[in-house]
Amino acid sequence: MTLPIEPSRFRSAMARWATGVSVVTAHGPGGDAGLTVNALLSVSLAPPSLLVSLANDTDTLPLVRESGYFGVSFLSAAQRSVSERFARTVPSEEKFRGVALHRGPNGTALLDGTLAVLECRVVARTAAFDHTLVVGEVVHQEVGADALPLLFFHSGYAEAEGPDRLRVGARRA
Known about the structure:
Elements: H1 7-14, E1 19-20, E2 22-28, E3 31-37, E4 40-45, E5 48-55, H2 60-67, E6 69-74, H3 80-87, H4 92-96, E7 101-103, E8 109-111, E9 116-128, E10 131-143, E11 150-153, E12 156-162, E13 165-168
Antiparallel strand pairs: 1-11, 2-3, 2-6, 4-5, 5-10, 6-9, 7-8, 9-10, 11-12, 12-13
């Protein structure tokens, strides 16, 4: 018999998995929505595609469903404040206020100054408990700054000091 895993214990285990930090955005008739995401993975190179996991109660998921597109902006170590802004539960207008961005070919907000941005066309959605897994085919890509990535590890931000060194508990930029 398998005993249920307590959410706090699972969170503790997952904190040991280092990830990059991104902002996922979508655009609809009412404007833009976005949130900080580290549950993202490359699915395929042919065609280029990726998967994002979005909580069902976010304001971003309905716009992804409506528009059929989403954007992903990979954050640099210098963009911790952007990550913190998009992680907050505040109205979308507040998240985007004063943030430099441009539009992908399909209207999706893509953040400026990032390591790279992708605009994806939704090809599949799968319900998974309190999240929806969204697979998107990359239809637009821009490679940005050659800088170090913003990382998340042990429930906090971390920074790469180079290709072979990781600093945990990164100082606030």
